[in-house]
Amino acid sequence: MPKLKVIVARKLDQLTMPLAIRLPSGERLGSSEARVTLVFADAAALVPLATGRLERLAEAIVKDRVRIEGSLRDLMSAVAEMVSDGGRPVQQGPWARAFTRVRSFLRHSRSKDVGHIQSHYDISDDFFALWLDPKRIYSCGYFREPSMSLAEAQEAKLGLICRKLDLRAGESFLDVGAGWGGLMLHAARHYGVNVTGITLSRNQFDHVKALIAAEGLSDRVDILLCDYRDLDPEQPFDKLASVGMFEHVGRANMRPYFQCLYRLVRPGGLVLNHGITATGLDNAMVAGGLGDFLEKYIFPGGELIHVSHAIRVLSQAGLEMVDTENLRPHYAKTLWSWSDALEANLTEAGRVLARSMGPARAAEMLRAYELYLAGCALAFEQGWMALYQILLVRPDHEIVTPEMPGAQSVYPFRRNYIYDARSHHAEKSEGSSAS
Q1: Which has the least CB within 10 A, 68, 139, 187, 379?
Q2: Residue 376 is among the residues annotated as catalytic for this protein
Q3: 160: Cβ–Cβ under 8 A, 6 or more apart, which residues?
Q4: Contact indicator for 167, 173 with CB cutoff of 8 Å
Q5: Which of 64-68, 85-89, 339-343 has the lowest mean pLDDT?
Q6: How much is the average pLDDT of 250-276?
Q7: Contact present, 372 and 294 (Cβ < 8 Å)
Q8: What is the CATH number of domain 2-82?
Q9: How far is CA 233 from the centre of its chain?
């Protein structure tokens, strides 16, 4: 124990963000000016702090063996300095990579994926409503202006996706992993498309069904409770989006996933894949053990791959990448917005979770979500994870356009249609509908 205290005290002295420790005996380590104090109920919980195994420290916090006094933002500033690998991707050797591929294959099947999705998204709609925006959009916002609110940034993200896909009235549009329906309804209202959404979450399915009926959109909007692999439409869709979904697919299923997207969109049609990626080229773990923590407490079955691997397998599936944008800083800002909202509603969040799972489990779940949101905000700030929107086409050699010979798709091969609202045919209708 004395040696452990010396190691911890030395680590605390090296931090530029002052952090203090209070031991079970009442002894205090660290700066007297610290804005954050970790209160240890047992000395054994000091071990992960001393060794840099921060995922185990996080688990001790979830289990209430360690309590946080102070703000999560300040704590994460200190955590960024304590990560043992300095945030550098931990590259895996050939045997470790082989094990990762086998493990990925074994933990992803239709039945397992249903369980993974429902264990996260179906815990309580009321819980998510406390910290998401009013439309419950559970993916990275787009802060076109830094001063935007979360709700404005999410609205801007929906518009950005629809413009990238160049949605046009009367087209068929598929939303893979539709969440609580934000993109589906936005596309139907402002772009006049016929929308189909799919989800594995029973809660989300029921919620979106009710929204469609309430808005009188049943004639051109539908939500299905099904796996993307089981969807078999009479004819392929004109446009397709997959937002916040491919993180759940698994490395082993990545090529079949993109092959499925290829099958679901018509020749010449557009696909937008919006998802979190790793920063390590060889499927490296997220810094500080964050990936292990998320796997255990938040996203069972979740796996990240590097964007280069995603582009490789989508190319093997026959899709062509025509535009790629990294929104990593936008996700850091989005996650801090979620974290701040949850912190402002902790008491009510605890009550809501307790109704569905009992008080003891609810308390653990709430602490896990606090760490998940703040930890992921830190990870995106530090570049330990990234968020890419990849725009794809399914090439069609029969498409001939005098303006752009050899286009093989409806994509104009110019970005101005995405970012210059005046050049986009649907933006005027979107603006007038929203005003």
Answers
A1: 68
A2: yes
A3: 142, 144, 389, 418
A4: yes
A5: 85-89
A6: 94
A7: yes
A8: 3.30.1050.10
A9: 27
